[in-house]
Amino acid sequence: MNRFDELRFIRIQDFNLIPRYMMEQVKGGDTKVNRVLQFGTQIAKDPLTLLYVLADTQNKIKGFLWAEIDVFDEVIHVNTLSLDKEYQDRNGTALLKTVDFLKSLLDGSKLQKKITFSTTRPKAFERLGFKRTALVNMEIE
Fold first, then answer.
1. CATH code at 91?
2. How many CB atoms are located within 10 Å of the residue 94 CB?
3. Structurally, how many domains does the chain consist of?
4. pTM score, whole prediction
5. Could you read off the pLDDT of 59-92 as tens digits, one per residue?
């Protein structure tokens, strides 16, 4: 059994329940943790926002998942998946099991079983079977 198997997803509606270091450890992008916390309650209460903590058997938070249902493109887009280092592995177990969890949420819905991620590590995702899409993120400062 992989350590990740002992975690369970629990839906929450408040970013303040997530340990701050888990937000701060997210690589890439310029996540403004204080801004997320300022607007987090409003964001999390949106029915199209999927905010989950990953809790261990003692109900200690060991990670979080923040995704959104995009009804226009009919996909779930994952903004953030962050885990304690003890649950991370080189095989991508947490990532793949998170995809399985999200697909289970799509069962019975009219959405495609398509999940997208923003990442700074595309090669790691490709090793796990993900493919690059034609959509490219662009930014301007």
1. 3.40.630.30
2. 22
3. 1
4. 0.86
5. 999 999 999 998 888 889 998 899 998 888 878 8
Rounded CA separation 94/81 (Å): 9
φ, ψ for residue 29, nearest 5 deg: 60, 175
Asked if the structure places residue 34 within a domain, the reply is yes
Which phi and psi (to 5°) does residue 46 adopt? -65, 125
Domain of residue 77 covers 3-127
* Separation between Cα atoms, residue 50 and residue 65, nearest integer Å: 8
CA–CA separation, 14 vs 65, rounded Å?
12
- Tokens matching residue 86: 């003890």
Tell me if 138 is assigned to some domain.
no
